[in-house]
Each structure stands twice: as C-alpha cells, then as structure tokens.
Design brief:
- It contains 13 helices and 18 strands.
- It is of the alpha+beta class.
- The chain is globular.
C-alpha cells in the first residue's frame, strides 16, 4: 500500500485513491495538520485513515501491518512526516536535510545563495510584538512571508522599511517570517501581455535523475501577492525555455533533491531568470491541468516514483501535449470583506473552452486577502488549441464573472 500523509493540498482523495490502486491502495495519515470531520469522512471512503499525534513515536509501528511500498505527500507541511515514515521503512523520500530546505524558505534561500543559484538578500525573524532593528538595513522593495507557508498566506509586498512599519498590525505574533529582497521582473511575459513575468518548471526526479515534465505560465497576480492562475504547458522561445529548465535543474540539485516531483517558480528579469522558490511536491492545479492537456496524470506519476519506478517508466508516463489548459482563481479585492452576490455559474460552465467551473465560496461568505491564493471565490478551468484562443476564452470568462459577482467592502 501507499502511505499518504494528508491534508487538503495539491491532490484530491479520489485521485490519490485511483493512483494507488495498482499498489494495493492508500493509507491516509492525518493529524499533523487539523482536518474537519467532513474531510475525514471523505477519506474513509477511499482507504484506511490512521490518526497521528505530532511526533508520535509509535506511528511507524502502527503502519507496519499495511506493508507500505511507498510514501508520498502533496502538502509542504507534511514533508517531515513523509520523511520520517520513509526513513523507517527504507522507502524513497526526501532525507531530513533536504526536508529542512523544503520547509523553510529562509534556509532554502541561504542554500541557493551559497551554491550560486542567484543571490537574493534575505532575513529571518520571529515577530514578538516588535520588529528587529536589523530590518531597517534590509534590501527594499521586499516580500514578507511566513518562513513555512504556502499559497501566499499572510504575504506582503513592501516598498520600504517605513512600509513594513505601517503593516505591523497585520503580523502574526510568534510566527517565523522571512523578509526577502523583491525580485523585479520584466513586467510581462515574452509570449503574451496577458501572462505574468514568472513561470514554474515541473520536474520529476528518480534516484537523482531529473526528467522535466513541462513549463507552466502564470496569470498576473492580484495584490498584494496572490496567484490568480496558471497555464500548462507554456511554450517559450528556445533560449528562455532552455534558461528556465536549466535554472530549475540547478536549483533542485543545489538543494540535494533526488526523488519525487518538484515545482520551481522562476521570475523572468531583465538580467535573466531568477529562482523564487522550490517546492518538493506537486504544484497546485496540475492534478487537473496536466491530464486535460494530455501530458500525464501527475498524481499517478508521484505515486509511481514513490513505489520505486525506474526512469524509463516515468518517461513512459509523460506524453506530448494535445492542447493548452488554464485555471483562473478569481480573487476578491483587498478591500472586500464578503461576497455580496454570485450568479451566472451555469452560463459560465457552457462557455467555449470551459471544462469545469465552480464556486469556492457562496454568497454571504467572508473573504480576507490575508488567506492568500486559497482565499479565492471561483475556479474556472479552460482549454484551447493554442495560447491565442486560450487568452480569448479567458477574457470572455472574466467579463462574464465581473457582471455576476459583487462584493461587500469594509
């Protein structure tokens, strides 16, 4: 069976269950990240659920009856648990030193800087009601974010130290933060003004051998630093494509990653590509985008690698794209406190190229930009034959949504 430390993240329970069937099914391990009763009920429909208290010394012994052949997680915060389980059973997993670099943005940046994979000024601190005086000497503009966080939660773009001081009321007491020099991009994508100036590279690693699954584009962010969506695959000019693939490989190797899927975000700057961060798991949304594009089922890919697949098997599971796909996460304005009205969803689902669309929040629901990208209101999934057609379809879907949603403001 495949052991999956689980919380809501980049892979759904149903897709995980399907991917693990060839290996005897899935055992979900929960508890390190709180789960609702509803989520636990869903998990129990697909396989055994083992509850785990943090640092429970008996957990590996409790998993032995399942005879695990692999361990994989799709959530950053659960990488240490997957590492611990992998070490106990001798399974493919990140080792402890690699795991520390994948769960601390500060330690990761220090390693990348030390290994010459770009250079970004960075400072770590824990907020205790006052800011360290040293932050006045940091390089601005800068991005402030939790040291171990995801989806742009509690993330701010700061123009100056005075700007940081003006936002202290929004900082969370006793939370470790990292303040990083902002990487200033070109302002737009080289393949279309409707795309952002950063990309991600999706890689698979098998016993240290790196196999690139593809490059994805991004929609311009919502303020302050919230993702609005992704395009897969993205065809860049040959020189830029080679540059970002090479940079992602250098970053992965600098961090010592040898197994699993990686999601490397890269900013395109006038001086060349620069690593934003490396995630040691499947990137969000690719569970749906990659299969719809005809490339691969990335959840199955991750499971196969965890279970011991050889590089040839992994390459066999990756195919040329048949179309381009996109997800658009509709984010609330920073001034909004709630969704006032939200209609027009049936019509949206019938629009050209829409293969799925759904409300994340219902009318009356509260919203808060501090939740980051997961604070979105609507998901729209699109496909097209090429980028031009995709851009046209996205513009139409956004116009429709603008006419059917209103906000309650503070």
């Amino acid at each position: 069976m495949i052991i999956v430390p689980y919380a809501q993240g980049a892979a759904s329970p149903s897709r995980i269950a399907s991917a693990t069937e060839p290996f005897g099914g899935v055992v979900f391990v929960v508890g390190a990240v709180p789960q609702s009763a509803a989520v636990l009920s869903v998990l129990e429909q697909f396989g055994p659920v083992v509850r785990n208290d943090p640092e429970d010394p008996e957990l590996p012994a409790r998993l032995e009856p399942f005879a695990p052949v692999g361990v994989v997680t799709f959530v950053d915060a659960l990488l240490p648990l997957a590492t611990r389980i992998g070490a106990h059973f001798g399974l493919r997993a990140h080792d402890a030193s690699v795991c520390s670099l994948l769960t601390s943005k500060y330690l990761q940046r220090l390693r990348l800087n030390r290994e010459g994979v770009g250079h970004v000024d960075t400072t770590a601190f824990t907020y205790e009601g006052e800011l360290p005086a040293s932050l006045a000497e940091a390089v601005y503009p800068a991005v402030l974010k939790p040291d171990c966080g995801a989806s742009s939660r509690d993330t701010l773009f700061l123009d100056s130290h005075a700007d940081l001081l003006a936002h202290t009321a929004e900082l969370v007491t006793r939370q470790p933060y990292v303040l990083e020099e902002a990487i200033i991009g070109t302002g737009k994508s080289s393949v279309g003004d409707w795309l952002a100036d950063y990309v991600s590279v999706e890689n698979a690693l098998v016993d240290g051998e790196l196999i690139c699954v593809g490059v994805s584009g991004k929609l311009p962010m919502a303020p302050p630093v919230r993702e609005r969506g992704a395009v897969f695959p993205l065809t860049l000019d040959d020189a830029t494509d080679a540059e970002v693939r090479d940079l992602s490989a250098r970053a992965v190797r600098a961090l010592g990653i040898t197994t699993g899927l990686t999601h490397t975000e890269i900013k395109l700057t006038p001086e060349g590509a620069q690593v934003i961060e490396v995630n040691g798991r499947l990137g969000g949304a690719f569970e749906a985008l990659m299969p719809q594009a005809g490339v691969t089922d990335p959840v199955a890919l991750a499971v196969e690698i965890a279970a011991g697949a050889a590089p040839a098997r992994v390459r066999e599971l990756i195919r040329p794209a048949q179309k381009v796909t996109l997800v658009h996460w509709a984010q609330p304005p920073m001034t909004a406190t709630a969704v006032e009205t939200l209609t027009g969803m049936p019509e949206l689902r019938r629009m050209d190229g829409v293969f799925a669309a759904g409300r994340v929040l219902a009318p009356g629901s509260s919203v808060d930009w501090r939740r980051g990208s997961i604070g979105r209101v609507v998901d729209i999934w699109l496909e097209a034959a090429d980028l031009d057609e995709l851009a046209t379809r996205l513009a139409a879907a956004e116009r429709h949504l603008d006419h059917h949603i209103t906000w309650r403001n503070a």
